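Supplementary notes (optional reading)

For those who missed the lab, this is the record we used. Protein: glycerophosphodiester phosphodiesterase. Length: 365 residues.
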Amino acid sequence: MALSVSSVKFSSGFEDDKKQDAFGFPKFVVMGHRGFGMNMLQSPDEKMKSIKENSILSFNVAADFPIDFVEFDVQVTRDGCPVIFHDIFMFTQEQGVIIEKRVTEMALHEFLSYGPQKDGAIGKPMFRKTKDGRIFEWKVVKDDPLCTLQDAFVKVKRSVGFNVELKFDDNIVYGEEELRQTLDNILKVVDEHVQNRPIIFSSFHPDAARLIRNMQMSYPVFFLTNGGCEIYEDVRRNSLDEAIKICEEGGLQGIVSQVKAILRTPNAIQRVKDSKLSLISYGQLNNVVEVIYLQYLMGVEGVIVDMVMEISEAIASISVKNKADGEEDDGRKSMVMFGEERTKVKISKDAIAFLTKFAHKLLQQ
């Protein structure tokens, strides 16, 4: 299932300085979200807090399964070091009081002082704040030290590619020079350590995505969007059509969309394809096998998932059988076998309609 590093061709370039070369994955790809899956400390599901997200341990455990990439978030510290961390703020406790510090305002040594240390010592306590304002101590079953982007290149198994999400604060207006300096620090590490590992850049920040495309021609750049599932002041972030426009104008190679946006506007898939863009998805619904299956049938090229073991093993069992010679042509030209039991399912309008109805029920929950 996993792509070998030699099987992915990521050459790219502009045509007439405006259009991007068509980019496509050689097969349906599976990416581990923040490694082996994101941590949801408030979740009753122990799988959501089994291994510290965005850690070397998480990446390497994910790499033991039939996946193609690990996705992770990169920010740059005050002293110019790219580190892997999702949240904009680090929350800790000092003298019984919860305090917050912006990751990009820390020096590297301060950032690395949180959580378990490489020498086995116990670092500063880490907490996490949810969108609704609740704060949880960041406790997982298997913890691991915080890490830098360089650590990931050196210590993560080479069997997986990296989907490097360029992380920026939605509430800050960044100037071009500030963005350029941040991206330059990241590119220096990537260029120095990449060897032949497949790399994808992605970002919710439209200007950062377009800028890193202009700064290099070696790695594909995907625009991240929730497709209108949340509304932002920047209208470029509020629909799949806007995402297509960003990609076409900036020479980007693809879109990473919230799966809900794809299921709500499935006709957008064809518009993405017509624009010669790749399309992959993210979101908690990607932990439902039937939703993955539906996207596979609809033409989505890959998924970012939290339940790496369950989803990757289910996806690995997909195979396509062409219609045998002499077999009656009823308009359903292939059969897909999906899941451990490899149940045969006809690719038909009825099958897609059934799965779409199922997905719509999930959307309403």
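If you only remember one thing from this example: The longest helix spans residues 176-193.
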